[in-house]
Amino acid sequence: MTGSWVSLFSGGKDSSWALYRAIEDGLDVERLVTVHPTGDSYMYHTPATSLSSLAAASIDITLLDVEPDDFGAEAPVDSGQQGDTELEPLEAALTELDAKLDGGIAGITAGAVKSEYQTSRIQAMCDRLDAELFAPLWQEEPRALADQMLTAGFEITIIQVAAYGLDESWLGRTLDTDALENLEALNEEYGVHILGEGGEFETLVTDGPHMDRPIRLDYETEWDGTRGSIQVEDAWLAERNEDDQRVD
User: Fold this and answer.
1) Which residues pair with 114 in a beta bridge?
2) pLDDT tens across 115-174, in order?
C-alpha cells in the first residue's frame, strides 16, 4: 500500500510502544498526531500532552497537534455519543492530512490494549479513511507487554495516579521491574491493572531506543488524598548521558 503512516501519540507508554513497533516493522511513519483534550476524555490520554512536542523532537518525526473544544463543555451525553463526539476533531484533522500527504494516509498506529470502546471507534475511523490500523498491543498479556518495553530500553515515568493502592509515592516513579512487581501485588489485592488500562495511572516515556535524546523534568506533585499528578514546571531534552545539559 502506498502512502504514509500516522501515529496517534500522547507521549505515554502505550502509544510510544505502538510507534516503536511500527518503526521496527519498517512502516513509514511520517506524522505523530496528539490530541490535547481540555476537559475529561473517554478516548484520549489527557495529562501532560504538551510534552509530546519534546518527544516528537527527540524522535525526529513531525508532530500535528489537534486542540478540540472542551469535551466537558456541552450537556452530558451517554458514553457512546461522547466517544463519537471526541473522535470528530481527530478525524477531521486526519482527513485534511490525508489530502496533503503524498499518497495519502496508508495506516494509523494506536496503543490500545483492551478497550473495545476506543479500538472500535478508531477502527471505524480507519475504515472511513481507507487506512490500515496497526495496534500491536491489542489483547496482549499486560506483564509481557511491560517486560517487552523495559527490555527494549523504554524509560517510563508515572505522571498521574487514580486508584486505590496507589499513593503519592508513585508520582514521578519509574515504571521498572520493581514497580511492576508492586503493581502485580496491587492487581491481586485491589484489581489495579498492571498497565493502568482502566485509568489507574498515566505515564510519559522519557527515553527509549527510538529517541535521540532523553526528556528531563522538573516538577512538583499534586495530591488530594486519593489521586494526584505531577505538575511539570520545566521540561527539556538532555544530551544522552549528560542529563544536566540542555539541548536548545
Assistant:
1) none
2) 788 899 999 999 999 999 999 999 999 999 999 999 999 999 999 999 999 999 999 999
CA nearest 16: which of 223, 161, 206, 187?
206
What residues are paired with 62 via a beta bridge?
A: 31
User: Which residues fall within 8 angstroms of residue 248, CB to CB, at 6 or more apart?
Assistant: none
* Residue pair 152/161 in contact by the 8 Å Cβ criterion: no
Q: Which helix (H) or strand (E) holds 127?
A: helix 116-129
pLDDT digit string (tens) for 40-68? Answer: 777 777 778 899 999 999 999 999 999 88
Helices 142-152 and 177-190, interaxial angle, to 10°?
Answer: 170
Kindly state the cell numbers that stand for 65.
497537534
Which three cell numbers mark 29?
511513519
Question: 44, 47, 34: which is closest to 8 by C-alpha?
Answer: 34
101's grid cell: 500527504
Phi, psi of 235 (to 5 degrees): -145, 145
Going by their DSSP bridges, the two strands 155-161 and 228-239 should be labelled as: antiparallel
**Topology of domain 4-134, CATH:** Rossmann fold (3.40.50)
pLDDT at 39 over 80: no
What does the block give as the cell for 148? 517487552
Q: How many CB atoms lie within 10 A of CB 78?
A: 8
Which pTM was predicted?
0.92
CATH superfamily of 151-246: putative n-type atp pyrophosphatase, domain 2 (3.90.1490.10)
